[in-house]
Amino acid sequence: MDRESQSLFQVFLRLRPAASGASVGVGDRFLAVEDPEPDHSAPKHITLNPPNDRRRAIEKFAFTQVFEEDASQLDVFHCTGVVNLVEGVLAPRGGEGTDALLATLGVTGSGKTHTILGSRSQRGLTQLALDVIFRSLGQNLLDCSSNPTLEHTISASDPSEATVFSASSFLENVYGDMAAPSRASSRAPTPMIVRSSHSSFDFDIYSDGEDDHLNKPTPRQAQIYPTGHSQTNSPKSVRVVCREDSVVPQFPPKTPLWRGQRHHLGDQAVFSSPSLPRGPQYQRVQQLTSHSKGQGPLKKHFMASTASIRQKAATKPDQPQGESFGPSQTPSRRLHRTSAFPQQPDVSALSVSCDPSCEYAVVISMYEVYNDRIFDLLTPPVKSAATKEYRRRPLLFKSTESSPDRKLVAGLRKVVCGSLNQALMVLEAGLHERRVAGTGSNSVSSRSHGFFCVEVKKRAKGSRRHGLETPWGGSALTIVDLAGSERARDAKTAGATLAEAGKINESLMYLGQCLQMQSDAVNKDKPNLVPFRQCKLTELLFSNCFPSTSSYSSSHRHRNPQKAVMIVTADPLGDFNATSQILRYSALAREVTVPRIPSITQTILTNVASSPPQQFSSPVGSPPLHHRPFFPPGSTGTSANSYSPTLSSSPNIERTFSHPNGSSPGSDMHRATMEVAAMEISRLSEEVEYLRQAFESERAARYEAESHLLSMEDRMMELEQAIREDCVAEFERRLEIEMARWRANMQVEMERGEEHWGRKIEVFERGIMASTSADTEEEENKENVLMEDINQENERLRRDNDILRRELACMSPTKRVPLQERGSDLSLATGAESRTSSPKPARNNKQNAATDENNLRKKLERLRVSDDNLQASAARNSGSLAPSVGAKKVRKLATKRWDSGMDDEDLF
Ligand SMILES: Nc1ncnc2c1ncn2[C@@H]1O[C@H](COP(=O)(O)OP(=O)(O)OP(=O)(O)O)[C@@H](O)[C@H]1O
Questions:
Q1: In this structure, how many other beta carbons lie within 10 angstroms of the beta carbon of residue 226?
Q2: Ligand 1 atom closest to residue 445's alpha carbon, by position in its atom list
Q3: Where does the record place the Kinesin motor domain (predicted)?
């Protein structure tokens, strides 16, 4: 058995064409395809020349086959043996069939999705495989519309706890789901206008479905990509949109295409070998598909147009690149009309045999592996009550009761399709849910590993006739579009998209380990210990690769290990490091050659007159080996031409050395051995020299790095110091500000307090004043009463005075009544009356007058005394608080008294 057939995967390499308008060779093309070996029509080997670094090793890789840039979708379809895979699944010769896996692997933007799902005008391997399957099944295919119990019976015999739908009910549900637009979370629309995030102008690229249009660069485009780099590799993150994106016909059509429709069934058993040699047949295929050769990298596969319709964050100029839109931002759901699906390449001439004694059913399911979890793409997300976000439930990859020996994705939604169109529409619906985002490397970059499963169920015909439903068996073709590895720097991803990229790269790393282990195992005849349980992706890809060893297997039907094909895609003008890494772990064989400059060894070698052809064989896929000197292309000297190393067709690489002149082996064996030894010594010493130089340069680089590290540490310390000082200064400045503010506040508070107390004192004073004035008023009232009394007394006395004066004036000395007889006022009055009524004798008149005078004086004296008393009592009453008022009154009284006194004196 040859080594290639022992591999778990056949590995093909497909090179992506350069961006349209780019001239090959202008950019740094680092990958060269070796000419096919004489016994092979197609190339199998490539050489990887590190750009701009002649000291790096030149690596050679072997693949099952290499597809150059001009290979069409049909070439890839034929030569990768998809038809073989389909045949294995249909099992025309009876039995359960063989599961098949077809996957693409590569750096982001290298053309994986293009290969698997095609472009707007070219179908991908998925559509072609589906076409062949439906065409091949023909009349043996059952449809839910004609077999109402089909759905039920498939569901009953499905081992994976799946929910089975008929295509018509599923599509009606999906396309009639009015809530879908608001919740579809994975794909946002691509705007018609594409803006370069680094340029100030709009950059519009429209596709009208014609390849030529796509391939012609606009003047602006040519300006942006003058050196031939593809857009997808451009750091300018240009988004490519298609005109049809904005004019996608309304769906569903008025007459649903799936109702009562059966696809045209091609003739049976027209089987074409997928392994077309590169002879006339290959040429014919190339001629047939020559129209598709102009595919440029600007084309989108037709599903990608859906993706672009719902393109996410990075396509919006104002959105941070790579970020996903929320569900609410997703506009209406627009899916393609089946007539809008591309029809080319045409595989109507192809079909494979199916088992004529069996009836078949095609069941489709889709899921994606995102962040190492499996999500069903055909089950709509459910709105979470807590977060109000649409979420999908992750599914388990496990053994179920019905499949104890085999792990399956449990709980998927599966759709029974009766025609190619139905299958394409289900595929479209599933892709609609798949996560994509625009990154700096690819405008429609897959952010998850997408799995498209076509289960071909099979059972013996006529089992229903006897009322017994035989359970369905069968196999599946799984088509996988892996997410691309990417470098965050190039992809310019951030946030969630960056985290996604981390998970993608991690799962691809595990996949790489598995692939490397399998190639090591094949090359070294070691047991196949592939560590595929490290992540979901590798589990899904590898767990069916091995024959079942479970104890259950005896009681269950035997399953063949799956047949697997991996198509590695690479852009020869893309990122060298990322591409070489993928090639390293995916290649079936690898050889590393240390480059050397022609030296004295060559001279020795050229002087060797003759040497027998020598064959050296070395295992490949092992850690880098240093083989015989390899003369890089372009190096001078005959030896470069003489020793052109080639990788053999087998994964085991062999190097054959032959003399250009084809001269016969030397007669002297010893001499030949010595020459070979000399060659080897020379080579080894050159290698030693090279390694010494490499070591020296590495050491110098290390010193440089260390000194750089030290200076960086110093710089860090300085920076830290500066930052600390800045912090202190800032702290002090703020403290100062705070203190000033505190002081100002304090001042304000104090003023407020003073004002407050001032107001309180004022109120208190007003209270005191109010009480004082009340007292004063009372005193005044009392004084007024006294004054009134005094005034009355004065008035009375004045009257008395007047009376007395009148009496004095009117009275003759003889008739005058002596004053002493009037002891009191009353007696005065009565005396006056009595004097008027009884006159006295004249002899006593003088004496009486003198007495009267004395009486009057005494009386006046008494009055004066009574005034003093009044004054004293007034002073007593007024108290200490109003002495001035008392004094004033006293002075007033005194004035009155003296006025009265004057009056009295005037009287005398
Ligand atoms: N063989 C090809 N012929 C023409 N165009 C191609 C080819 N391969 C890739 N392209 C173009 O290159 C661009 C990127 O390709 P694609 O989306 O398939 O990359 P990818 O590897 O799937 O990227 P990712 O991993 O980010 O999803 C697309 O515009 C596609 O049309």
A1: 13
A2: 26
A3: 8-592
Check whether 189 has a pLDDT greater than 80. no
User: Three-state SS for 424?
Assistant: helix
Q: Which domains does the chain have, with CATH numbers?
A: 3-590 (3.40.850.10), 797-907 (no CATH)
pLDDT tens for 712-771 read 888 889 899 999 999 999 999 999 999 999 999 999 999 999 999 999 999 999 999 888
- The tens digit of pLDDT for each residue in 622-631 reads 333 333 333 3
- How far does residue 296's CA lie from ligand 1's centre (Å)? 9
Q: Identify whether the C-beta of residue 476 lies closer than 8 Å to the C-beta of residue 456.
A: yes
Burial 699-731 (b: 16+ CB within 10 A, else e): eeeeeeeeeeeeeeeeeeeeeeeeeeeeeeeee
Report ipTM (2 d.p.): 0.97
pLDDT tens figures, 496-519: 666 677 778 888 888 888 887 777
Q: Where are the alpha helices (DSSP H) in 838-882?
A: 845-878
More confidently predicted of 617 and 808: 808
Which residues have C-beta within 8 Å of that of residue 339, sequence separation ≥ 6? Answer: none
Give pLDDT, residue 628.
37
Residue 832 CA, ligand 1 centroid: distance in Å: 154
Mean pLDDT of 392-396: 85
Q: What is the pLDDT of residue 626?
A: 37
Long-range pairs for 859-864: beta carbons < 8 A, 24 or more residues apart: 860/904, 863/797, 863/900, 864/897, 864/901
Amino acid letter at 753?
Answer: G
How far, in Å, CA of 234 to CA of 19, rounded?
A: 10
List CB contacts of 672: < 8 A, sequence separation 6 or more: 610, 611, 612, 665, 666
Query: 571 CA distance to ligand 1 centroid (A)?
Result: 9
For the stretch 317-345, pLDDT in tens is 333 333 333 333 333 345 555 556 777 88
- As a whole number, mean pLDDT of residues 643-661 equals 37
Which of 127, 565, 142, 139 lies closest to 348, judged by CA? 127
Pocket of ligand 1 (CB under 6 A): 16-17, 106, 108-114, 119, 232, 295-300, 442, 444-446, 483-484, 569
pTM as predicted: 0.54
Q: Please tell me the distance from the alpha carbon of residue 728 to that of residue 5, in angstroms, as a whole number.
A: 72
Among protein residues, the one with the nearest Cα to ligand 1's atom 9 is 111
Question: For residue 126, which of 374, 426, 544 has the smallest C-alpha distance?
Answer: 426
Instruction: Give the residue with greater pLDDT, 477 vs 493.
Output: 477
Q: Are 844 and 860 in contact (CB under 8 A)?
A: no
Q: Mutate which of 13, 15, 16 to test ligand 1's pocket (most atoms within 8 Å of Cβ)?
A: 16
Q: Which segments are annotated as binding site for ATP?
A: 106-113
